[in-house]
TrEMBL record:
Ranges that cross the membrane: none
Catalytic activity: a quinone + NADH + 5 H(+)(in) = a quinol + NAD(+) + 4 H(+)(out)
Organism for this UniProt entry: Jiangella rhizosphaerae
Family from the record: Belongs to the complex I 51 kDa subunit family.
Encoding gene (name): nuoF
Organism domain of life: Bacteria
Protein name: NADH-quinone oxidoreductase subunit F
Enzyme class: translocase
Single GO term (MF): FMN binding
Names of the cofactor(s): [4Fe-4S] cluster; FMN
EC number in record: 7.1.1.-
Function statement: NDH-1 shuttles electrons from NADH, via FMN and iron-sulfur (Fe-S) centers, to quinones in the respiratory chain.
Length: 437
């Protein structure tokens, strides 16, 4: 596997007016669409299957396989829905992609819709990012003007209309079925599955739901071919992806690289930990993926590598925390977020996170006991896997992993009656904690 950067989706981000159709076409934009329309829809589905493209929204499900689940004999229309409701803490790849190069997403939407037989597609954008919503709307309008959308696209006989929809800013709407409810005008809450969206999705019709980066990767696969895509990454996790580095890193930002690159390699590209500090812990895919430590610097950032160390690749939102960070405080802030963003439909999630916040706040103040740690783990067991969606599973991830890796730090809080990392506390606390580590 090559460890050099592979700018495909990010290749035009630094160009002036990169978001315009004119500049996109100068860079061979929409040529992949012309090529796709000369082939059968089944050929496109097979090409994406052969490429091994896996969902870039977190789950990593094979994209071509997902497309093939659409029933061929359904009397109902087929829909494509693009999940652009990026709201996972630490995740910041889809928003800059839509800002800098929205036409690659629009082209991917058209090709995907052609492949699955959809005549209507929806791009569900997080409503709080109004500038992104406007930019995508403008790109869609430009595509209509050029004949890439509408009736009889490029003389192919294929028709497609695209609607850009602004959500109301709810984290739960990143879950695909809650997104569908929101798109239909209802309160965003996850649905019971089955039936799955491929059979009964938007308006109870066959629906494909994919992440922005997944759909934006389709034009390059059509242009370069499945083998070209597989030449990057590895056998089970092929291709490239955008890795978002944030936190205590010298040069935070988006780094597009083959799947399987390591955090050590990415940190070298990003100038290392800022201020000459040491890495303490990090998340590979946002706060809903179990945290890792410096021991995992050389684990491949691919689906199998992360699973092998008890975490998940997720959205590749690499949040970096140095040795000045209190893991108890960080975990408490994350759980406060999940408590706030729970839709309230499921009792374990709605009640469990509320109680977790109370315990974590008490632990951070140094008022807890070691029995509280066991209680947190027991609550995690009773929350995970017992809700309609993955918010519950993701929400307990930082709790379980932080206790697994930093139990001594939790204990230090109530042994010394406060946070060892509080500037008002004695430096002796931090020295003793460092000696234990």
């Amino acid at each position: 596997m090559t460890t050099t950067l592979t700018p495909v989706l990010t290749a035009r981000w630094d160009q002036a007016d990169s978001f315009t159709r004119r500049n996109y076409e100068k860079a061979d934009g929409y040529k992949a669409l012309r090529r796709a329309l000369q082939r059968t829809p089944a050929d496109i589905v097979e090409m994406v299957k052969d490429s091994g493209l896996r969902g870039r929204g977190g789950a990593g499900f094979p994209t071509g396989m997902k497309w093939s689940f659409i029933p061929k004999d359904s009397p109902k229309p087929t829909y494509l829905v693009v999940n652009a409701d990026e709201s996972e803490p630490g995740t910041c790849k889809d928003i800059p992609l839509m800002m800098a190069d929205p036409h690659v997403l629009v082209e991917g939407v058209i090709i995907t819709s052609y492949a699955i037989g959809a005549k209507h597609a929806f791009i569900y954008v997080r409503g709080e990012v109004l500038h992104v919503f406007r930019r995508v709307m403008n790109a869609v309008a430009e595509a209509y003007e050029a004949g890439y959308l509408g009736q009889n696209i490029l003389g192919s006989g294929f028709d497609l209309d695209v609607v850009v929809h602004a959500g109301a800013g709810a984290y739960i709407c990143g879950e695909e079925t809650a997104l569908l409810d929101s798109l239909e005008g209802r309160r965003g809450q996850p649905r019971l599955k089955p039936p799955f969206p491929a059979v009964a999705g938007l308006y109870a019709s066959p629906t494909v739901i994919n992440n922005v980066e997944t759909i934006a990767s389709v034009p390059s696969i059509v242009s370069g071919g499945a083998e070209w895509f597989r030449s990057m990454g590895n056998e089970k996790s092929p291709g490239y992806g955008i890795f978002s580095l944030s936190g205590h890193v010298t040069k935070p930002g988006q780094y597009e690289a083959p799947l399987g690159i390591t955090l050590r390699e990415l940190l070298d590209l990003a100038g290392g930990i800022r201020g000459g500090r040491e890495l303490k812990f990090w998340t590979p895919g946002g706060s809903s993926t179990p945290m890792l430590t410096a021991e995992h610097l050389d684990v491949p950032l691919d689906f199998e590598g992360m699973a092998g160390v008890g975490s998940m690749l997720g959205t590749r939102a690499l949040q970096i925390f140095d040795d000045t960070t209190c893991v108890v405080r960080a975990t408490a802030r994350w759980i406060e977020f999940y408590k706030h963003e729970s839709c309230g439909k499921c009792t374990p999630c709605r009640e469990g996170f509320w109680w977790m916040v109370q315990i974590l706040e008490r632990l951070e103040k140094g008022e807890g006991t070691e029995a509280d740690l066991d209680k947190l783990l027991d609550m995690s067991d009773n929350i995970a896997g017992r809700s309609f969606c993955a918010l519950a599973d993701g929400g307990v991830a930082p709790v379980v992993s932080s206790i697994q890796h930093f139990r001594d730090e939790y204990i230090a809080h109530f042994e010394h009656g406060g946070c060892p990392f509080d500037p008002a506390a004695s430096t002796l606390f931090a020295q003793e904690l460092g000696a234990k580590a």
